[in-house]
Amino acid sequence: MSNYISIGKRGTSDVIIDCVNLNMRAFMRIDEAVYGRIDIDRKFFSMVRDYGFYPISQSNIYGGQPKARESVAYIELDGEEIGEYMNNTYEPFDYEVEFMAFTDNMGKNNPLYAEKIINTRIGTLNEFLANNGQIILYNTFNGQRIVGYYKGYEITTDERQKWQNIKDFKSFKLQFRINKPNLCKFAMLDEGLTNELRALGVVADINNGLSGT
Q: What does the CA dihedral 144, 146, 152, 153 come to, rounded to 10 degrees?
């Protein structure tokens, strides 16, 4: 497999989704126009390479929010009493990643055909994630490992009907529920993220961008 992941802000950002308990082969058959490859025994996919979806923003979350301390007030005591606090418990949260897809990289040099491909890819991606359990999401731009469950998607921009231009685009957000923040890593250095992606089967290249083998 070629070196197609570049880690960190110096390289091309991507979102890698690790499908923890997934039959990727059955899913990839759903949209042969997207895949058409034989390397489908792996359990992850790249939003850029496999879908043509480019990440443009994500939730600005850089650590778990500590759970509030329980407190109780008594009329005969000043102020309030605070219960014992465990400093490794955090509130669950929602996490979003926004992607953009362009009609000019979807094939056949036809904006109408390209829009159908984009819609098909969003639909099959939604179906796939909705029928999956826990997922692990690696954001190579800010070095985050996010573990949670899929909630849904939201189309944020759809200008194609307005302009009918081959370079029109569609953007959308994927939404996840992070129920166990302790499973996440919010500030991974390039080396740590690279090592995790290598173990997953993604060949990561920190400095050379999208270089091939």
A: 0
Q: In this structure, which long-range contacts are made by residues 122-127, counting pairs with CB atoms below 8 Å and at least 24 apart in sequence?
A: 122/153, 122/155, 122/170, 122/172, 124/27, 124/30, 124/31, 124/34, 125/51, 125/153, 125/174, 126/152, 126/153, 127/30
pLDDT band per the 50, 70, 90 thresholds, residue 125: confident
CA 165 – CA 113 distance, rounded (Å)? 12
Q: Is the dihedral of CA 134, 67, 143, 56 positive or negative?
A: positive
Check residue 204 and give its pLDDT.
52
pLDDT in tens, 155-210: 998 766 565 655 677 899 999 999 999 999 998 887 788 888 888 777 655 444 43
